[in-house]
Specification:
This protein is α/β, with parallel strands linked by helices and 421 residues long. It has 12 helices and 14 strands. The radius of gyration is 27 Å and the shape is elongated. Bound molecules: adenosine-5'-triphosphate. Residues 158-348 form the FtsK domain.
Amino acid sequence: MALIFQPRWQSRVDAVPWRWYLVGFPVTAARMVLTWRKLCQNTDLAVSRRPGHLLIGGEMLVRGSALRPEPPRLGPIRATRTGLTARIRLHPGQTPMHVLAVADSLMHAWRVHSVRVISPQRGHVVVIATAHDPLGEHPGAMPVHRPRLLSARLGRTGDGAAWHVDFRSVPHWLVVGATRSGKSNWLATLITELAPQDVALVGIDCKGGMELGLFSPRLSALAVSRTEASRLLVALLSEAETRMGQCRDAGARSIWDLPDDDRPVPVVVLVDEVAELYLTDGTREGKQEAADCSTALLRLGQLGAALGLHLVVSAQRFGSELGPGVTALRAQLGGRVCHRVHDEASAEMALGDLSPDAVAVVQSITEEEQGVAVTTMGGRWLRARSVITTPDDARESASQHAHRTPRLALTGPGLTKGSDA
Ligand SMILES: Nc1ncnc2c1ncn2[C@@H]1O[C@H](COP(=O)(O)OP(=O)(O)OP(=O)(O)O)[C@@H](O)[C@H]1O
C-alpha cells in the first residue's frame, strides 16, 4: 500500500471551496442585488411611502415623489463556506415572520439550495442561504479529530456543520428507518467513532449477530438471541445497582462526580432491530422473556444516564403495537435519528412527540438518499447524513482497538463474549 503524505497547509488549501468563493458567490450576490426590488414588490415585502410634499391649491397641484414601493434595505452580503448571509433592515410593522413566509421565493430567485431566517437584533433579520445541498454529495472521509469522551462525529448536517452525537448531553438515542435506509451504517459509524475511546460497547443483535458481530473484538459482550439479550439486560441492571451503591457511598449524584480513579467505565448498549426483543412466538416463556427485556430496557433508560449506561436503540418501526412499555421507553430516548420511513406513522413515532414539522421533512427523504436522516439537535431538528462505514472499515476499526475493550462482569451463562463471537 502506497502512503501519500500531504503537508497540512495543502489539505487546508484543498478544503477551501474556491469555486464558490471566486465564481458562485459573486454571481449569486449580483443576482440578489439586481432582483431585490422586484422580488420585494412581488412578495409584498416592499411598502409604499407617502409622497414627500403634497400641496393642493385652487387648481389642484400635487408635488412629490411618485408612489413607489420601497423594499427593506438589503445590507452587506457575506460569503460563507457553504453559501452566504445577508442582513435586511425591516420596515416598521414588519417582523421576521414576513421574511420567513417568502423564504421559498428567495430560494428560487437567488437559485440557492435553502434559506434560513434568523433575527439577531430587533428590526433586522439575517438571511442564511446554503448554495448547494451539502448532503447531496458523497460525504467522503471525515477529517481526523480528537473526540470528547462519549461523543462521536457521524457526518454532516444540512447546514454544512459536523454532525455530533454526544451521550453526555443526550444519554439515550432512538434510530429509526425503513430497510436499506442507512440505520446499520449509522450504527457502524457510531461504533467506529467510539471504538478508540475508553468506553465499553455492548451489543444486542437478535438477527444472529449479523450486524454487530463485525465489531466482536471491540464488544465487551454480545447477545445474539432474545434469551441472551434478556440475561445481558439483567446483568446490566445489576451493574447499574452496583454503580448506584458506589455513588451513594461517595455522596455523588452521578458517576461523573466520582474521582477519576474510582469512576466506572461508561457503557454504550447498542440494540440492533429492537422489535426482535418484543415479538413473541406465543409461548409462555417467549412472552415472559419479551416482558423481561422490555422492563429491563425501560429501567436502564430511566436509571442509566447518571450511571454512565447509555442506550442506542435501532428499529424499523417503534410504536405501541410492539408491546407495553414501548411508549415509555421512547420517552426515555431523547436523541432521535429518523431515516427514510415507509409511512407517516413511523415518522410520527420517531419525531412527532418532539417536533411535528420534522415529520413532513422525513417523508421527503427519497430512496436514493441513503444515510440521510432528520435528527434533533439542541432543541431543533436538522437534516443530516452519516459518512459511509463499510464492513471492512468496521472490522478494521474493531480489531485495531480490540485492546481497549474493557472487561465487564456481564457475561453470564449463555452470553456470547465479544471476542469469542
Ligand atoms: N450515509 C450514507 N451515504 C451513502 N450511502 C449509504 C449511507 N448509509 C448507508 N448507505 C448505503 O445504503 C445501503 C443500506 O444501508 P444500511 O445497510 O445501513 O441500511 P439499513 O437501514 O440498516 O437496512 P436493513 O434494515 O435492511 O439492515 C448500503 O448499501 C449503504 O452503502
